[in-house]
Input
Amino acid sequence: MAQELTTMKKVLKNHRIQLLDRSNVVASGVGYKMTGGQKTSALSIVCSVSKKVAASQLSSTDLVPATLDGMPTDVIETGVIRALQSPTEKHRPAPGGVSIGHRDITAGTLGCLVKKDGRSVILSNNHVLANSNAAEIGDPILQPGPHDGGRYPEDHIADLEQFVPIDIIGIPSDCPTAKGIASFLNSMARLLGSSVQLQAIDMQATENLVDAAIASPLKPEDVKDEILQIGTIQGSTEGELGMAIKKSGRTTGLTTGEIQQVDVTVNVQYGEGKIAQFTDQLMGGAMSQGGDSGSAVLDESNHLVGLLFAGSDTTTIMNRIQNVFSALGVSL
Amino acid sequence: MIFRLLIILLVLPAIATSEDSNMPNSIEDVKAQHEERLLQLPGVVTVGIGRDENGNPAIMVGLKRSDPETESQLPTLLEGYPVVVRIVGRIKAQ
Output
């Protein structure tokens, strides 16, 4: 086998240039010959073509010979091969998985399109499209996001339509009494040799379920109902423990993982000293980094299960998509 | 008729009591009951339901970083369910 492969490589090297000169041929290599859609055990010189054309319609100079130096050839249709467009570039139409953001943020990810009152709208996070509650309805949304060079008005793709406010419970308290008590307890703790420090925090335990928002595209033809490197969504399903999942995001692209925890209550940092508590979340492993927020999370059969919004170096946190849909009144 | 009603009244509380004492609490209930206390321990940032190394349902406690003081305060079992500690790091909005 190894010897056969070496011979094949030699033959390919001698004929590569003539093969690629033929019209429609976009790549050549060594691979197993396909017969009737099935892989055989025979090695062959494989020519990838942009479009398969009947031999009778090709001139003899464009025809891939059945054998080259006695070695079999094969022709497969791959279509035109393009360089993958980066998720941080400008995309029109823009699919899910690309950079997007409110004009006052850095950049996040366009999750996917969902339906609101029969119209297609862009789904992502509140902290991506609505600047963590600070935005006003109607504010411009840029694709790519400002950090990736998105500018107003050239890259204005949509307007903020709706967001679910996030209750941020951990803003350091302005209450002087609470601060005084905390500082007194901390000085006592220091005297007792404890390293634990208290911080006066407004504990107003309102539970958040989602970090979600939608934006209305200026033109329907500026957005695309599929996700980069994933394809079209085939419905939605409940995320379950052990489920294999994937996402396509602005920073780390296509990544895969597994739901490691369900029913998760998590304290998430929204900048220095700001913490919001979320319940009923899904947890995956290392699947994301800053800028991937807003990514749609799907199972292996392209069923939507979650909306990615937070994480650490080892952990990814997602809202359940059912909670997102009911909070925003949207559907697929 | 009144007799039958009486029997039902006598039997019902008995059933309810036997369920209370014999039915173990679900892992969801146990987790919900303890999570507020767990999240108040220094460095605890997540509480969820996952599986331990043997594949059994477990209550997962996530820490910002390794913290022997907090870890020593965590039980190994809660109402019969294993408690597993994971270092999940500081969770930030991304």
User: Anything to note?
Assistant: DSSP finds three helices and five strands in chain B. The helical segments of chain B are 2-22, 27-39, 68-73.
